Amino acid sequence: MDSRESAEMYLETIYILSQKSDAVRKIDVSRYMGYAKPSVTRAIGLLEKRGLVNVDDSGILKLSKEGEQQAKRIYERHTVLTKMFMNLGVDEETATEDACRIEHYISETTFDAIKKHMAKYE
Amino acid sequence: MDSRESAEMYLETIYILSQKSDAVRKIDVSRYMGYAKPSVTRAIGLLEKRGLVNVDDSGILKLSKEGEQQAKRIYERHTVLTKMFMNLGVDEETATEDACRIEHYISETTFDAIKKHMAKYE
DNA sequence: TCCTTTAGTTAGCAAATGCTAACTTTAAAA
DNA sequence: TTTTAAAGTTAGCATTTGCTAACTAAAGGA
Lengths: 122, 122
Known about the structure:
Two copies of one chain form a homodimer.
Chain A: H1 3-20, H2 26-33, H3 37-49, E1 53-55, E2 61-63, H4 65-87, H5 92-102, H6 108-119
Antiparallel strand pairs in A: 1-2
Helix pairs in contact in A: 1-2, 1-3, 1-4, 2-3, 4-5, 4-6
The structure holds a DNA duplex.
């Protein structure tokens, strides 16, 4: 996996888990992503260094303002791409999987075009 | 870059260069991709081991049957995705760049759906 | 014939990610 | 209070890809 993709996946995961629970810890990320704990420890450490995530004394993860922006950006791509693929007749599971891989690699320009296009179908 | 993506890019490059010239060598791949020669030496060595590329005594690269199949598969994705993005109003350069990144990550199912969709516009 | 340019190779570095093993710490259970 | 289970951390391995440095080999020019 690409380095940027990896970071984005961690951010997105924290964002998604934060919507379901208000006390997200590393172990939750570990389980959700299916990665070993040390992988999560390091990855989140890097996100902290970059100022995208904060971990409080009790081990609760919070996205910073910028971290949340980035997470939302990816998550929006995720949902829009999934819809687009489903709109073309792809089943939900496959559409989600594809969106999840592609969301990291689409340029702003192309994503905007897709988003505008999809807006017609709402 | 992902390992599979890397291999696919080399195959696609050899395929593209083979359409312009019938004597493609490693140095050509090196220049086209902008990679140093040792990177190409190793990458093509791996493709040879996998039976996807053959290098004859004079250093000319040929895709094997399977190598060509894979290269064509990727190249088709490249062209179809580029068209789709341009169809949504994206400029050619951006469309090509995006297609080039995404072509490696789309499932067969989703690509088929896109392809069918694009067929309507021909 | 000798020299230079070009293609290709070998060896080894750096970066990044995921993993296991083993340890610490904390918190809950008995 | 003691024990046990769960969360995290540290250390270090493996894999993969691209790079540079330095070398070999072959082809062409002078």
